[in-house]
Amino acid sequence: MQKKLIGPFKQVLSLADIPLKGAISDQQLHVIPESGIRIEDGKIVEIGTYSDLKAAATADTVLIVPEGDQVAVPSYVDCHTHIAFAGNRANDFALRNAGATYLEIAQAGGGIWSTVQHTREASEAELVKGIIERANFLMAQGVTTIEVKSGYGLSILEELKMLRAIKEAQKELSVTLIPTCLAAHMKPRDFEGDNSAYLSMVADNLFPLLKEEGLTTRIDAFIEQSAFSAEEITPYFEKARAYGFDITVHADQFTTSGSAVAVAFGARSADHLEASTEQEVALLAQSDTIAVALPGASVGLGCAFTPARQLLDQGASLAIATDWNPGSAPMGQLMAQASILATAQKLSNAELFAAITFRAAHALNLRDSGRLAVGEQADFITYKTDNYQNITYLQGSLQPEQVWKNGTNIFT
Ligand code: NIG
Ligand code: FE
After folding, report:
1. CATH 2.30.40.10 in the chain, residues?
2. Where are the CATH 3.20.20.140 domain residues in the chain?
3. Nearest CA to 306 among 338, 274, 275, 346?
């Protein structure tokens, strides 16, 4: 049994005892001063005053002393990304900023379909390489769990290629990837038939293979005018549920409709919500579905932010994720984006940290990560600073010193 004592830290941000839902004040962050973290076999067995922990340490405990003043916080969970892709949409970005509409960008060869074409042209090995590079870029920011969607394949074989690439990339990474099937991202232009026929084809042919190969436990869909309607998605989600898949939804991005479906199906999360009104906010607040804000897409598209303040005040659970993708959210910087959302929506530090740790973990159905407390996985990051407030204050420019996953520093 491997035993480690890490410390002393100026502060450890525990986040223990914060409820899953609703507004949070910074008093609830549970900041432990002059503290240490004791680990056995990758799990936290004690957190407390460092001098006490050191005095009680057994001879076989390895002492790890951080250099200078450092603080420790739970490592981050990015619960919504599209980091499996090929190609580049810088031209879409330039056109959009020059005033082009969605339709004009699509007509110029841009949009989701252009990424589908590049992703289909890429080999599985090329996709694996891209996933590894982007996952490591997130890891250096302190992210140790990353959800990764398919959705740029949009045929049985190409969706399988994407999900197999995510599985292969996992073998080379210390961070955990959580794969999600987003075959319902849009109806591919080369499918002959309507939206419902495409969705039936996917459910009938792809769902059993996903189960057989163990490629994912999660099904996502984009409910929007440019993608699928609530009516079209309902039978698709019924089939997904019959297979035992968890459901998650791209909801209310430009028009409302997705969040009602998400709540009706008991989805783990409803993501985007930039267009949600009081009605959708109330619905989400009364449900167990986690509301996921994607400020990277708001910044990328120059659109409204998710009404995060309203969601929290009404009692919803709020997570924040990067939505990293080549089109709407090319930045891929979680803390920068969360800090921007916090200034726009007036989120407390506690609400920000909860949104990128245990509340985001919950959206992925991970119950024992995202907090620093006894019995939780020893997944934490350290920063060279004496006050955790500097982390959000510096809006992403303060980078972690160490990144610990299951009791091991993976950032070397
Ligand atoms: O989450 N909203 C739909 N899908 C992605 C965008 C994907 C793309 O533009 O390539 C999103 O923002
Ligand atoms: Fe997305």
Report:
1. 3-74+371-409
2. 77-363
3. 274
Domain 77-363 architecture: Alpha-Beta Barrel (3.20)
Ligand nearest to the backbone CA of 274: 1
CA distances from 172 to 22, 307, 379 (A): 37, 37, 18
Ligand 1 centre to CA of 259 (Å) is: 16
pLDDT per position as a tens digit, 165-203: 999 999 999 999 999 999 999 999 999 999 999 999 999
325 C-alpha to ligand 1 centroid (Å): 7
Identify the sign of the CA torsion 369, 371, 372, 373. Answer: negative
Q: Is the dihedral of CA 357, 177, 148, 118 positive or negative?
A: positive
- Residue 150 CB neighbours (<10 A): 30
Q: Which of 248, 301, 323, when mutated, tests ligand 1's pocket best, judged by the most ligand atoms within 8 Å of its CB? A: 323
Name the token pair of 332.
């891929």
- Whole-model pTM: value is 0.98
Q: Partners of 293 in the beta sheet? A: 320
Ligand 1 centroid–CA 302 distance in Å is: 14
Topology adopted by domain 3-74+371-409: Urease, subunit C; domain 1 (2.30.40)
Pocket, ligand 1, Cβ cutoff 6 A: 82, 112, 115, 222, 250, 253, 297, 323, 325-329
Burial class (CB in 10 A: 0-12, 13-18, 19+), 95: middle
Q: How far is the CA of 37 from the centre of ligand 2 (A)?
A: 35
Q: What mean pLDDT, rounded, does the chain reach? A: 97
Contacts of 40 by beta carbon, 8 Å cutoff, 6+ apart: 1, 2, 3, 4
Q: ipTM, 2 decimals?
A: 0.94
Q: Give the mutation target among 112, 118, 154, 180 for probing the ligand 1 site: most ligand atoms within 8 A of CB.
A: 112
CA distance 71 to 306: 30
